[in-house]
């Protein structure tokens, strides 16, 4: 069943119940359902019916959710991206897009729209957190998108009486999933569209559930208000964070997954990551000190990338998929002990940045002999993107930053810039990324910071 149909059902049962609160005010379920119906009729008139790809880039989170659910009701596949992308960027990111939604959809009068939906229909598309100069849009079926909803509801205890705070941009698949799940459940979703800053305390005074990335959990726990549960995804969660949540009276449900794989493992009580319902996990032996690569098989896996984009997703002939994450050896019944991304991906503020994507853009700058991009530790963001430029006379930082602004998304732009006459290399001649990171962390005087 389309998520929009769940909203229609809630509108019939509880039309006056608050559905969504955004920067511009609140909509009740009856009002939201009416807006979705009118917007769906508008999209159908523009040709956005079954099989169509609808690109949605809106700054207002309530208007964005309305457009997404209208496309869902019309039988199309919504794809959420950044509101400031132009047509060229959308085309590079997703290939052929049938309809662009860059302004809030108008209400078109007419009879109710009834979706003729099947579980195998492509029903949701999103960008990986690290979509960059080589954007990766992922598409998944209706069943893989909505079938996991009841499991998350059970694990986190989310029901129609909850108020769910989603304090981040809906262009992030983590936050988009959280908001849509809340509406499918019949709960009230608070969607500020970005981190609420000074308004966080007031929003937590009403919220019973919050979805956050790990580095934001301490901020939440300072003023937990009415909070009962924190659903934490995006990176590993330490014991100290769980202990702090327990002292604040907040239950933590953390999970591991990827945009391509959806949910893989969940820790609902502090005992370690266990397979999410319906998921099988294998850690296939590798050559890195006894570590292996995490593979998953489940009903929640994506279909793949749009526009024939290349990416870390790989699959075998038996229905298993991996994005290259690395873990210690694993046996069924044990906790999954993750180490990190095998491809050197950088977790920064809840976003995943693939170093090769950043390097590809910056390597074209005149004066850059070669480049290595790594993550440097940061007390708030987890890591920040750091670029180490090879060259006897590296280009000025101002030029590098100008190229980064024109070719990279905000999360991917290096915050720290260094130069080195010659990069260390592997036996095959490739830059030795791990050795560069170790030398930088050790304060190697041969690596100088670009002012």
From TrEMBL:
Cited InterPro entries: AMP-bd_C (IPR025110), AMP-bd_C_sf (IPR045851), AMP-dep_synth/lig_dom (IPR000873), ANL_N_sf (IPR042099), ATP-dep_AMP-bd_enzyme (IPR050237)
Family annotation (Pfam families): AMP-binding, AMP-binding_C
Record-annotated AMP-dependent synthetase/ligase domain positions: 9-94, 110-306
Record-annotated AMP-binding enzyme C-terminal domain positions: 358-430
GO molecular function terms attached to this record: acid-thiol ligase activity
Protein's UniProt name: AMP-binding protein
Lineage: Bacteria, Bacillati, Actinomycetota, Actinomycetes, Streptosporangiales
